[in-house]
Specification:
The chain is an alpha+beta fold. Helix content is 48%, strand content 20%. It has helices spanning 2-12, 105-117, 121-128, 132-149, 192-202, 205-210, 220-229, 239-263, 273-277, 285-295, 300-311, 320-337, 340-351, 353-357, 359-362, 370-382, 389-400; strands at 18-26, 31-38, 42-44, 51-57, 61-68, 71-77, 80-84, 88-91, 157-164, 171-177, 182-188, 213-216, 234-237. It starts with a helix and ends in a 7-residue tail after the last helix. The structure holds zinc ion.
């Protein structure tokens, strides 16, 4: 028995005055119970570190530990309390577990690694033999630790973006460190207050002063919040959001025109939705000749498609000045085309042009966060729609925050 007790004391890293008093093995239910005792009349105050007299010991509690082979292993102990002259009666810190945790530190550290390596948290939970609630608390503690440890280092390039949350019209806003591909903070909503909260809790004041550029879509609440909180940053409207606006305009043009043609019994545009959404470089030979064929019919949608493709060259201009000239050339093409939806986009781009041209100073886009996007997509799919924003935030920061999570 002594040998087993010593063995477990070593595994747990326990030192005097902690002692493993007994180890019970139940082969029938594959379970090991380790009983630990505190054998000293004094201990250190968790507040000031002073050695104090032992006051009493709490009732026995249990912690789940790493399995021994396939045996579920639990640790049991009382928690000793000391009486400090200055701080009163306090529970001393236990060497094997964090405060309020039902798991030992080694178990939590292992669980975090399993969670990060697993495709789904359900699968990780099954592997570890713990339930959804336990997983959530382990992740929460890990994220709290990670955020507390995060150094306020300089972050030069920032991306801000919104994502849908739950079905319907609920949104969350994210702030990302573009250089290090990590999410810094997540808040609920996408209005002005949300943007301000996002910025101030993601970065401290000194960090905000150091930011050189912020990449965003053209939405007003974000613009206002950035002007307020980043005194030295350029706004750079995201290339990929702009492509999206152009793509949407093509799609809308197709829908309107298709409905009009159908009324006249013309089915030219039936089943062409995806044809127009792809870029030229992704089209098969067959699709390309289809587009050429439809182009001869003077359709609005093919004009829109051509204008969308034409805009791609904007991003390859040598510098700001050439880009501006190219934009003006494109703008004229849009005006003469007479395609209404494209004219709307052109007006929006004209209005924001100064902050679109800033792209040629920094070349930042939110595209790198594509990796993050697919991770967030997986988190969402995994949880089958979060009812609770807090849990969603925890998971995003757990998986995409690049935090130091281990206990
Ligand atoms: Zn004290």
């Amino acid at each position: 028995m002594d040998f087993t007790a010593n063995h477990y004391a070593q595994l747990l890293g326990l030192q005097s005055p902690w002692k493993v008093t007994s180890v019970d093995l139940d082969v029938g239910v594959l379970r090991v119970d380790i009983h630990v005792n505190y054998e000293s009349g004094s201990g250190f105050c968790p507040e000031c570190g002073k050695a104090c007299k032992l006051y009493d010991q709490s009732a026995k509690r249990s912690w789940r530990h790493l399995d021994t082979m396939q045996f579920a292993t639990h640790l049991h102990s009382q928690s000793p309390r000391i009486k400090c002259e200055e701080h009163g009666v306090k529970t001393i810190s236990l060497p094997w577990a964090a405060k309020h945790s039902g798991f030992t530190l080694l178990f939590e550290a292992f669980a975090i690694r399993v969670l990060q390596a697993s495709r789904s948290t359900q699968a990780a939970g099954d592997l570890l033999g713990i339930n959804w609630h336990h997983i959530q608390t382990i992740m929460e503690r890990a994220v709290q630790r990670g955020l507390a440890r995060r150094e306020p280092e300089e972050v030069a390039w920032i991306g801000m973006d919104e994502k849908s949350f739950r079905s319907g019209h609920n949104y969350i806003s994210l702030i990302n460190d573009l250089e290090n591909s990590r999410v810094l903070e997540v808040v609920e909503g996408r209005e002005g207050n949300a943007a301000s909260e996002l910025i101030t809790s993601g970065l401290d004041e000194k960090q905000r002063e150091m930011v050189c550029g912020v990449c965003i879509d053209m939405s007003a609440p974000y613009i206002n919040a950035i002007q307020e909180h980043f005194p030295h940053a350029d706004i750079v409207h995201d290339k990929f959001h702009i492509s999206q606006h152009l793509g949407n305009a093509v799609d809308k043009t197709r829908r309107i025109e298709h409905a009009k043609l159908q009324k006249q019994g013309d089915e030219s545009l039936t089943k062409t939705k995806y044809l127009w959404l792809k870029g030229m470089e992704h089209l098969s030979d067959e699709a390309l000749s289809r587009i050429k064929e439809l182009g001869r019919c003077e359709l609005e949608v093919s004009k829109a498609w051509y204008l969308k493709e034409l805009f791609k060259h904007f991003w390859n201009r040598r510098d700001k000045m050439y880009a501006q000239r190219y934009f003006e050339y494109w703008e004229k093409k849009v005006a003469t085309s007479g395609v209404e939806e494209m004219k709307k986009v052109a007006r929006m781009l004209r209005k924001h042009l100064a902050n679109i041209l800033t792209y040629f100073d920094s070349y930042i886009t939110n595209a790198f966060s594509e990796g993050i996007n697919s991770k967030i997509q997986a988190i969402k799919a995994n949880a089958r729609g979060f009812r609770n924003f807090k849990n969603y935030r925890t998971r995003i920061l757990f998986f995409c925050g690049k935090l130091s999570l281990a206990p």
